[in-house]
Amino acid sequence: MLRILDRYLLKELAFGTLGSAALLLVVTVGGTLSDVLSKVAAGRYPASVMFPVLGLRVLDALSALLPVALFLGVLLGLARLYRDSEMHVLSSSGMGPAGLLRPALLLATPTLLVVGAIALWLGPWSAAASQALVDNANRSVIAAGLEAGRFTELPGGNGVIYTQALSPDGQRLTRVFVASEKAHTQGAPEVDLVTAARGRMFVDPGSGNRFLVLRDGHRYSGVLGQDDWRLLDYHRNDISLASINADAGNAGAGSPHEQSTLALLRSRAPADRAELAWRIVAPLSVLVLALLALPLARQNPREPFYGRLLLAVLAYLVFANALGIGRAEIMSGKRGGIWLMALVLLAVAGFALLWFRQQHRARQPRGVRA
């Protein structure tokens, strides 16, 4: 049974965490949406899978978002209590460090479990599902944005395509018309008109480029305003729609981030071991950041909060960069990276507890036990 004071403090910390999580979620959704829209505009993502991919990528990002939200939530919640002198009254009444540590841990424990589930299971699943969704959709001309009986802009915006009919699975087209243009040295645009009796979608397994394979048609090309147009009859004509290769640094098919945790446990590859270490560190960082927020939140009633907030942001950046260095060491094949990440977690947690304990001793009244 929780005490009244524990429930009050837990409510304050929970409200701060929820507010921070909502703000960070808006920022994450905005950044992810911008990235997805840019890929849709470039033709890397079909427009029909934009929102499913957005949802899956945001779910994957929660393992990094929730620890920061908890850190800021505990910091903001306790800072308000210090600023309104409530914490000083409670401390003078005999509340020891356990009175603050208990609600912080009560909030950090379920957050740790949620982050652990996302980092170890839901995150890899959502990354793999997102990539599979894009790959499968790119093999269908319907998902690529084409519809029978209407003109559709080509990826990149340099032309249009029209098909009279589509097969039910969206793979085959009949009576196709493609018009595109590009800049010419003489200033006037060079126009390329292609007709075909039928066509189908084709994805090159080697390069990952998306092509529209047209058969039995004609091709007209020339510069507007000139008479030297060219006519070509063809049996097969491949038109490149867009490259669907993943960008450098992003998860691609078969990347460590898309593999299950069990598969990473069986792997000895440095990249897989680095990914596994990062997934294990994610839930542990929830507990470490909750402990670090306790001493950072302490302030005098008239002390500006911005100084503490800046110090907290710098502390988080140092903590996150140190873990990132450890991950990079593991990816390079060095075993010292694992020990570095463990040392950072233990050092920050121990320092936070000692600092928090020292702060309480400095203000504890005589004769009052913690």
Strand-helix topology:
Blueprint: H1 4-42, H2 50-83, H3 86-92, H4 97-138, E1 152-153, E2 159-166, E3 172-182, E4 190-203, E5 209-223, E6 230-243, H5 261-266, H6 270-296, H7 305-331, H8 336-363
Antiparallel strand pairs: 1-2, 2-3, 3-4, 4-5, 5-6
Helix pairs in contact: 1-2, 1-4, 2-4, 2-6, 2-7, 4-6, 6-7, 6-8, 7-8
Question: Would you write up a description of this structure?
Answer:
The protein has 370 residues and is α+β, with helices and mostly antiparallel strands. The chain contains 8 helices and 6 strands; from the N terminus they run ααααββββββαααα. Strands 1-2-3-4-5-6 form a 6-stranded antiparallel sheet, with no helix packed on it. Strand 3 and strand 4 form a beta hairpin. Helix 1 runs parallel beside helix 4, helix 2 (50-83) crosses helix 7 and helix 4 (97-138) packs antiparallel against helix 6. Mean pLDDT is 84; it is low at 243-253.
